[in-house]
Write a structure and sequence with these properties.
alpha/beta; seven-stranded mixed beta sheet; four-stranded parallel beta sheet; 12 helices; 26 strands
Length: 441
Amino acid sequence: MVDAGFGTRETPGVRLLVVGGGVAGLGIATVLGRRWRGRPGAPTVTLLDSDAAHVWKPMLHTIAAGTRDIAQQQTTYVAQARDAGFVYQPGALSGLDRARHVAQVAPLHAEDGRLLVPARELPYELLVLAVGSQANDFGTPGVAAHCHAIDSRLQADAFCREVRLRMLQCVAMERPLSIAIVGGGATGVELAAELVQLTETAEAYGARGLAERLTITLVEAGPRLLAAFPQDISAATQQRLQSLGVRVRTGTQVKAAHAEGLELDDGSLLAATLQVWAAGVKGPAVLAALDGLETGRNQQLLVTPSLQTTRDEAIYAVGDCASLTPAGSERPLPPTAQVAHQQAQHLVRYLPEVLTAGRPVPPFRFRDFGALVSLADYDAFGSLGQFGFFDGGVVRGRLEQLSHAMLYRSHQARLHGFWRGGLLWLADRIQARVRPPIRLD
C-alpha cells in the first residue's frame, strides 16, 4: 500500500510524481498542485524529497557562512504541500521499475539508526526527475573524508556549525584558523566573500583578533576564477576578493585531501583547519542506476529537446540533474538556477496537455538573461544576456546586489504568491533590524 504522505489527500486518477524539491521540482509541484486542487478528476501531484525543507540553492553559501538564518529562509515541504495542494512524500529515490511505472523509495531511518519507514514504491503516469546536483571530486583521494560540501540545506547547516565552533577555538585559545575552498566558480567565490563578512561582523560582536588569525584561501585549477563569466568579471572579482584578504590561487590542482590540509600538484601542502570542496558538478549517484536511463559523463540524465529522457517518454528530467545540448551548440546548458526555473516553467505550461490530451511537449528553448555573482555586502558583478537589446554587457555594484536580491524575492513570490512573498520580504527586513546579522547561537 502506498502512504498518501502529507498535504492534500491523494485520490485515484492520473498521477504526476516529482522527485526533488529544488528550484525546478518544488516550482512544478506548487504551480500544478494549485491549478488542479479541488477539481474533480484532476491529476494528483506528489513531491518526493529526502529533506524536510527547501532552501533556494543560490543562497546555500550564506547559510553555510551563517550570514543568513536558515530557519527564516527555508520552506518546509509539509506546509507548502498543504498550501499548494500537492502531496509530500519524505524519502530518497533508490530506483525505478519503468515497466510497472513505479519509483522505488529507500527506507527512512532515525538519526540513531531506528527504522522509521520501510522501503516502499510510488506509482506514476508521468515522472519528473529534478534531483539537482552535487560537487564533483573527480575521484580525488581524501575529499569525501576530509572536505565539507554545501550542496544541500543540511550540508550548509553542518558547515555553519563547524565554522562557529572553530572560530570559538580560534578566539578563546588564540589559535590560527585557516579555511581552504576548492573551486573558483560562483559557489566558491561567494562563500569566500561571505566568510569575510562573517569574520568582520563577529569581531564587532567581541571576537577580537579573529581577523588576524583567520586566513581564507580559494583554490582554482583553471587559469582564472568564474570561468563561465567574461574575462573582465573574473579579473575584477579576483581583485576584489584579494582586497578583502582572500588568498587566491589559480592554476593550482589538488591531488589529495588530508586531515591537515590539501596536497597540491607541486607536492606542497596547503595547511587548512577546514576544507570545502565546491568544484565541479555531477548528478547524484542514484541516476546511474535508474533502470537503464541514459546518463552522460557527469552522471546527468540525457534528455531530448522536449526534456524527456532519451529512453523513456514518460520520464522527464530538469535542472542540474539533466543534460541538454541545444541545437547548434557544442556544450550542454549550464547547471544554474536560471536554467532550472525556465525548464520548470516549460513543463508547467505543457504537462497538463500531455496528461489530459496526450499532446507532446514542444522543444525547450533557453533564453540567457545573464549571470550574477554577489560578494556578500561588498560588491556584485553581472553579465547581461545575449538577446534583444542586451549584448553581453557587464554591470557591477549596488544595482547588481539589488538584482541578486530581486531574483530571490521573485522565487519566493512564485512559491508563496505575490502578497505572501511580499510579507516574507517585509519580515526579513524587520528581522534584519532587530536581530544580529550573523548566526550566533
